[in-house]
Amino acid sequence: MKEKTMYYEVTKIIEVGEGMRVCLDFTDILAPSEGLFVGNTGHGYVNVLSENRETGDYPARPFRINCGAFHQYLHQGDRTLYLHEVIPGEALTLTSLEEGRDRYVGRVKLEKRPFVRVECEGKERTISATLQNSSSVFVREENEGELSVQDLTVGQRILCLPDEPGRHLGERIEETIFEK
């Protein structure tokens, strides 16, 4: 990943009830280390990894990234889009520690699921994401590597991509904006 990713300390993990989650199913096999950056605000994004691993509750889904709540931003280079705006046939840039690669979305799957809000602190900002509370949702933790959101604890550090808020239709603009 060539962008300014950093590990941020998890300060809160809060159950926030049910809502609509977005799974993006790609037309290719994803590596376990590949993922996307999603977040609640333009302050930054959390790296959510592919479901290319078996858990005690779920078989591997090597084509899927469970991105969490559909209101969130999806970071894609110089732009963002809302998860609910992603359409089948669209190319997205997947991220890994080595480099990114473009792959096509084959299906967008929305389902009602339980969520946790993960808040992280670092570099004078808070980054948060609303993720499905599932053993199949993984993030990259600084010392543990690939870690299920259900095993994540306050004090651990996860990979984030800080950003500056201020977007209009996904494009960066100079504006005074407050998001929480």
What's this entry about, in short?
The protein is mainly β and 180 residues long. The protein has no helices and 14 strands.
Description of the molecule:
With 180 residues, the protein is mainly β. 34% of the residues are buried. A hairpin with a 2-residue loop joins strand 5 and strand 6.
Pick out its properties:
two-stranded antiparallel sheet, 14 strands, 180 residues, 0% helix, mainly beta
- Through-space gap between termini: 26 Å
**What is the total tally of β strands?**
14
What is the chain-wise order of helices and strands? EEEEEEEEEEEEEE
Amount of beta strand:
over 45%
| Broad structural category | mainly beta
Number of helices: 0
> What portion of residues is helical?
under 10%
Overall geometry:
globular
Mean pLDDT: 92
Specify Rg, calculated over alpha carbons: 15 Å
The poorly predicted ranges are none
Report on the biggest sheet: 12 strands, antiparallel
